[in-house]
Write a structure and sequence with these properties.
about 190 residues, CDP-OH_PTrfase_TM_dom, phospholipid metabolism
């Protein structure tokens, strides 16, 4: 297993998941709800920034690896799923939206693994639609974690709109990947 700065940042993102989740289980006497929400949103933002930064560094420093290519999307899916489950528990995201987003991540991960076994991983390579979906999620989630006004702007409705957009893009991108893989699935599954 290679170890370099990009992989360290990916591990850091995974390590921040218990921090984000744990903040919501602290006794009320330790932090006010406002402080807890702020710290959770900031931790999520830092984790999301490491997602962008580790990929940039890996390419810039020529430190890409198959392990890093495996670990990075796992870290993203764990981070988003954990945050969605917290938001679901807080009543800040609808169960259907959480199910759509988490279900798509599981489905596409399984599809990519299967396509790789068939030697057709290029058919389900990351598409710009998936990147736009991820961007919408990564902005929506901290807005919903904080769910208060910041500089006079109420972040809750912004987060709700963006998570809805992310859910629509989630379904759209899943259908895109399934459509791209369908000819191979039909040919190889018979």
């Amino acid at each position: 297993m290679p170890f370099n700065l990009p992989i360290f940042l990916t591990w850091l993102r995974i390590a921040m998941i218990p921090l984000v989740v744990g903040l919501f289980y602290l006794p009320d006497s330790w932090l006010s709800t406002s402080s807890r929400d702020l710290w959770a949103a900031l931790a999520f933002i830092i984790a999301a920034l490491t997602d962008w930064f580790d990929g940039w560094l890996a390419r810039r420093l020529n430190q890409t690896s198959s392990f890093g290519a495996f670990l990075d999307p796992v870290a993203d899916k764990l981070m988003v799923s954990a945050a969605l489950l917290i938001l679901l528990e807080l009543g800040r995201v609808d169960a259907a939206i959480a199910l759509i987003i988490i279900g798509r991540e599981i489905t596409i991960s399984a599809l990519r693994e299967w396509m790789a076994k068939l030697g057709a991983s290029a058919s389900v390579a990351v598409h710009s639609l998936g990147k736009v979906k991820t961007a919408a999620q990564m902005v929506a989630i901290p807005c919903l974690l904080y769910s208060q006004s910041l500089f006079g702007i109420n972040l809750k409705p912004i987060g709700q709109l963006l998570i809805l957009i992310a859910a629509v893009l989630t379904v759209w991108s899943m259908l895109y990947y399934l459509r791209k893989a369908w000819p191979i699935i039909r040919e190889k599954a018979i």
